[in-house]
Amino acid sequence: MKRFVVALLSTLLLLHSAHAGQGAATAKRTAAPAVKLAATPKAKAAPKPAPAVPKELHKAPYEAYAVAEAESGTVFEGLNMHLKWYQASLTKLMLACVVMDRVERGELQLADRVTVSKRAEGMGGTQVFLKAGESFTLEELMQAALIESANDAAYAIAEHAAGSAEAFVELMNRKAHRLGMEDTAYYGVHGLPAAAGGHDNVTTCNDMIRLAREALRHPKVLEWTSTEQAAFRSGTLTITNKNKLVGRLPAVDGLKTGYTRKAGFNIVATGASGERRLIVVVLGSPESKIRDRFAADKFREYLTN
User: Fold this and answer.
1) CB atoms within 10 A of CB 14
2) pTM to 2 decimal places
3) Could you give the residue numbers annotated as active site?
4) Are 236 and 112 in contact (CB under 8 A)?
5) 83, 281 in Cβ contact below 8 A?
6) Residue 305's pLDDT is what?
7) Phi first, then psi: what are they for 192, rounded to 5°?
8) How much is the pLDDT for 304?
9) 130 and 156 in contact (C-beta within 8 Å)?
10) Domains in the chain, start-ordered, CATH in brackets?
């Protein structure tokens, strides 16, 4: 009996072990497969920055402009032609016209000696460093005013020609009225910004065409403004034309530029090819190179076609 019980127990133990092993194997077979993690995607390369837009392309090339035939005054194209704008040193074109009127009437001579005053010595901006008591011919000072755009020379000329700068301003305004420059006003003889409470000289493209045509009646004005460089003060100082189109663009041979912070960069230029002479006016450019490039394009367009 005892043997039977022992055998029975042994049989039961064997059956239990086999069942447990089978369960483990089943568990092993039916277990959920391990989740495979997706590979981390590679970071995309940062896009290349767009090419920088040149600074000048963000800016309009002018506030106003005009292109006209010098002989007839016919305007070929323009924009904002009656917009009143600050003249800056374009003022010196009117100074030249008033002086040359008086020279032609015999009231002044280009060989006249001009003595520099203390007030002329004190002019700021572009200058030829005149000293009170110095003496120059009127022609020497006209060259300094129109080539170098010297404010001290312009002031000395005005005092000599009319007795005072204030009296000369009156002559400038009378001349503007006679020329039909209805939107132009002069308050100073050189174009420097006015003192606090004062007024700056103003004009329009339309009026500058009238003034340029008048200036071209005087061969001396074209001679001076077409000069690239000249000697001043017995050759100790070289004066250089502020109009950089002169000497760089074959057709362009004169007239005037101007600049102040309020005015921006202005130009009244003239050039000729064959029988045609052109006047190009640009007011209020943000940079001199933008102004010059725009004006040069107009000369090429109208003088090569």
Assistant:
1) 10
2) 0.81
3) 89, 92, 149
4) no
5) no
6) 66
7) -65, 150
8) 82
9) yes
10) 59-303 (3.40.710.10)
Residues in the chain: 305
Residue type, 301: E
Q: What is the pLDDT of residues 199-237, one digit of tens each?
A: 999 999 999 999 999 999 999 999 999 999 999 999 999
* pLDDT the model gives residue 284: 98
- Report the 3 state secondary structure along the chain: CHHHHHHHHHHHHHHHHHHHHHHHHHHHHHCCCCCCCCCCCCCCCCCCCCCCCCHHHHCCCCCEEEEEECCCCCEEEEECCCCCEECHHHHHHHHHHHHHHHHHCCCCCCCCEEECCHHHHCCCCCCCCCCCCCEEEHHHHHHHHHHHCCHHHHHHHHHHHHCCHHHHHHHHHHHHHHCCCCCCECCCCCCCCCCCCCCCCEECHHHHHHHHHHHCCCHHHHHHHCCCEEEECCCCEEEECCCCCCCCCCCEEEEEEEEECCCEEEEEEEEEECCEEEEEEEEEECCHHHHHHHHHHHHHHHHCC
pLDDT in tens, 1-22: 444 444 444 444 444 444 444 4
Instruction: Provide φ and ψ at 52, rounded to 5°.
Output: -65, 135
Q: Hey, what are 98's tokens?
A: 């008033």
The single-letter code of the amino acid at 157 is I
CA 67, 73, 76, 77 torsion-angle sign: positive
pLDDT tens digits, 34-74: 433 344 444 444 444 444 444 444 468 999 999 999 999 99
Bigger pLDDT: 94 vs 41: 94
